[in-house]
Write a structure and sequence with these properties.
By secondary structure, this protein is α+β, with helices and mostly antiparallel strands. The protein has helices at 7-27, 59-65, 160-174, 193-214, and strands at 45-46, 49-54, 69-77, 82-90, 112-121, 130-139, 142-152, 155-157, 179-188. The protein is 30% helix and 32% strand. Strands 1, 2, 3, 4, 5, 6, 7, 8 and 9 form a nine-stranded antiparallel sheet that branches.
Amino acid sequence: MTFLNSSSARILTLVLLLQAGAYYALASRAERVPDVAPLTTFPNFIGGWQTMKEIAVEKEVQDVLKADDTLSRQYASLTGGQLYLFLAYFRTQRKGQSPHSPKNCLPGAGWEQVEDAKISVDVPGRDTPILINKYVVAHGEDKSLTLYWYQSHGRVIASEFSAKFWLVADAIRYHRSDTSLVRVSIPVRDNNLAAATQTGVAFVKTLFPEIEKQLPM
């Protein structure tokens, strides 16, 4: 009974209600599915960054993710910095497929959470900053920083709960449930998390206009 009265139980109940609402909204009418260019057409050169490697997404990951299109690349800067970009696009969430939180996909086997926060980033073309997730894990002296968000119809969403809310709202208003996950992973060099964060934020600022061109509004 204690659990049923807890905030976790209330949040879980609300999430289930949102999922049920989304299912009803999508199942009760025809869905609009926008045309989107393949993610393989995403630019290899972004500002001072260029593609170093295309990384194949393992079948096991694809089977769990169930995305309609994915992109996984390593980019390098002219100054020697390196990072990884992962995009996943979902044409519809009608059959239950939806982005999984990167927190569930980041390294396990001894990796521990160091930081889980949200940060504001000023990006070109927006009057107000976007709010994205900052997630840091560590394994001994090694650390990895991930910046990520969900993007639907030009809307940037940091919270998984908010993503469920907007799924219902957009299904009702626009007859659409397409969405995307954008994830940038930066290795932390010399235990300098501030430098890695600065690199990641700078890349996001350069990346964002290309994301808006690629993904449907």
